[in-house]
Design brief:
Elements lengths: L2 H29 L10 H34 L17 H6 L7 H7 L2
Helix pairs in contact: 1-2
């Protein structure tokens, strides 16, 4: 991978980290409404609880991806970035553009059941 390609992926990762950080903060606000702004009756409370479970799932997924992106950012200058951890072949650039935190090529991910 060239220096220019690594710089491009650094930029992509930085943008994704910023976007996900904002999303995580937004979800946290939805999970914990300000005092006095919570549901006012039983039906509203049930709807709030349903929404809250969806927000929790979104929060967990966003946090996991954010951590993977941060890890990829720290690893990007190493020779291992962009190399599949299983087969040790280069991960296709198209995959890295979509998921710059990828640690496996598609074939190995499917084989590993990830």
């Amino acid at each position: 991978m060239t220096t220019e390609e690594k710089q491009m992926f650094k930029t992509i990762i930085e943008e994704e980290i910023e976007k996900l950080s904002d999303e995580v903060q937004s979800i946290q606000k939805a999970l914990y409404p300000e005092k006095g702004k919570g549901p006012s009756d039983k039906v509203a409370h049930l709807n709030f609880k349903l929404d809250q479970s969806i927000h929790i799932q979104r929060y967990e997924e966003a946090t996991k991806r954010l951590n993977r992106l941060k890890h990829a950012y720290l690893k990007i200058d190493s020779p291992q970035y962009g190399i599949c951890q299983e087969c040790e072949e280069p991960i296709p650039m198209e995959r890295l553009r979509l998921m710059p935190e990828s640690m496996y090529c598609v074939a190995c991910m499917e084989e590993l059941g990830l």
